Amino acid sequence: MAYHSACSLQHGQQLTGVPKALLQRAGFTVKEPAEAHLCCGSAGTYNILQPEIAARLRDRKLGNLDRTGADLIAAGNIGCLTQLAGDRMPVVHSVELLDWMAGGPEPAAAAAARAARAARLPA
Questions:
Q1: Global pTM value
Q2: CA-CA distances (angstroms) from residue 107 to 11, 35, 54, 113, 117?
Q3: Tens-digit pLDDT profile for residues 25-78
Q4: Which ranges constitute the DSSP H helices of the chain?
Q5: Residue 82 sits in which domain range?
Q6: Residue 31: DSSP 8-state
Q7: Counted domains in the chain
Q8: CA 77 from centroid of its chain's CA atoms
Q9: What percent of the chain has pLDDT over 90?
Q10: Which of 4, 86, 90, 118 can pair with 109 through a Cys bridge, CB separation 3.0 to 4.6 Å?
Q11: Which residues does 8 contact at the CB level (< 8 Å), separation at least 6?
């Protein structure tokens, strides 16, 4: 999975390693994209007030996430999840993944990524 660190976590609260470490401890391989410090374009209401700039930031972020080779994006902010959704890779909240590893239901986005990966494997 590729991890997108929300601005509120990495810049506001100065939390950069903890969310990734939790996912890794739960058994996930976490890939960090280039320019991980950059915003996805959501930034609260930024995507509403500045949609053109927000779209450019989204495209740049998705390109970097795609280049990780991951098949799933994990993020911990609803604004980021909404901003990054709808591209080739499914997007899931990191807490949903942790819940799954603790015995909860598999997130639909994780199931979609697993199915897409299986479809690409040679028979």
A1: 0.87
A2: 28, 27, 27, 10, 15
A3: 999 999 999 999 999 988 878 888 999 999 999 999 999 999 999 999 999 999
A4: 7, 18-25, 46-49, 51-66, 78-84, 94-101, 108-120
A5: 2-120
A6: B
A7: 1
A8: 9
A9: 63
A10: 90
A11: 77
